[in-house]
Amino acid sequence: MDQEVAKRHFFEALENSAPEFERFFLARFFGLSISYDESPERCIVEFPYADFMNNPQGSLHGGVIAFALDVSMGHLCNRFLGTAVTLDMTTRFLRPIKDAARCEAQFLKKGRSMAYVESRLFDAEGKLAAVASSAWRVREPPEGEGGE
Fold first, then answer.
1. DSSP assignment of 41-69, as one string?
2. Coil, strand or helix: which one is 145?
3. pLDDT, block means (10 residues), the chain with 148 residues
4. CATH no. for 31-140
5. What value does the CA radius of gyration of the chain take, rounded to a whole number of Å?
6. Which residues are registered as beta bridge partners of 122?
């Protein structure tokens, strides 16, 4: 493991994180880049590959993959529905990741108090590597919109 890369990620996250969407510590630690499409409503999470993120078999750890998928879905909900919490999440791992990856989250169904979301993770070659689906409870609408 390249300890210098891991240390650099850690200290950059300490210096540049804040307790808010897109800037929280783990998002900064893993180097997530978060962006959105307005139509269709999507959240895209891209992240680099570093060996400190690996499992013992030498590919990206499933927990890191699940984290990135969850972040993409949570940020999608936050952007387009308001503050939401994960009720459940099912993840399917389809192929190992040994390079940078990209998640794309979109709504399967959204309402004022519940949302069903899917995120797909692609490897650097664009091959589907993991899929997650989840249910979210919307807690607060976005600023400027009324409640239920």
1. TEEEEEE---GGGB-TTSSB-HHHHHHHH
2. coil
3. 88 93 94 95 96 95 97 96 95 97 97 94 97 94 56
4. 3.10.129.10
5. 16
6. 102, 128
Structure tokens at 113: 């108090």
List the chain domain ranges. 31-140
Helix, strand, or coil (residue 134): strand
User: How far is Cα 53 from Cα 30, in angstroms, rounded to an integer?
Assistant: 8
Rounded CA-CA distance 95/145 in Å is 41
Cβ count within 10 A of residue 50:
18
Token pair 């689906």 in the structure block, residue: 133
Q: What is the Cα–Cα distance from 111 to 148, expressed in whole angstroms?
A: 10
